[in-house]
Amino acid sequence: MKKIKFSGRELAVLRAIDFSTGTTGAEIIERTHMDAEEITDILNGLLDAGFAEANPPLARVEVFALFETFFEINPAYVHDLRAVIARR
To answer: Coil, strand or helix: which one is 55?
Structure first.
């Protein structure tokens, strides 16, 4: 398997998402203290790569929908992502 690498901002967003229950976009903003536009870009990248999932299911997250959208880690990548976060 290819080694997974993330930027510091991507790791901050991943850490903000609760691996067992998921997290709303509003909670991610509160935990990371980052701009909504920046978080939207990061989450769209994680969604495109398959590392995260949105509920309701969305192909792309828009800033206006970020606050109500619920984000979860894709169960197929939980162990790999925990290992990446632990390495940092």
So the answer is: strand
- At 4 the pLDDT is 80
Residue 8 lies in a domain: no
Q: 9-43 burial string, b = 16+ CB within 10 Å, else e?
A: ebbbbbebbebeebbbbebbbeebebeeeebbebb
> Structural domain of residue 35, as residue ranges?
21-87
Contact 18, 43 (CB under 8 A): no
* Number of CB atoms found within 10 A of residue 79's CB: 10
Residue 13 lies in a domain: no
Q: Please count the structural domains in the chain.
A: 1
- SS3 for 17? coil
Query: The pTM is what?
Result: 0.91
